[in-house]
Write a structure and sequence with these properties.
single chain, mainly alpha
Length: about 60
């Protein structure tokens, strides 16, 4: 490997690291926003028991 190849590889790796750090920051901000939205909803939402889904039409029996 010559000096030019080495520099190209390290440059690409540096860029990958920058992108991964940006992705990590975005994920943290996204999780914080979801948490904040969830905190606001928890007081206004009352837990309910799910109702069974209504059956549509008659079910066909397989013979």
């Amino acid at each position: 490997m010559n000096q030019g190849q080495f520099e190209a590889i390290t440059s690409r790796l540096d860029r990958i690291i920058e992108l991964m750090e940006a992705q990590h920051k975005l994920a943290q901000a996204s999780m914080a926003a979801v948490q904040e939205a969830g905190d606001g909803l928890s007081d206004s939402v009352t837990p309910t028991t799910p109702k069974p889904a209504a059956k549509k039409g008659k079910e066909k029996k397989h013979e």
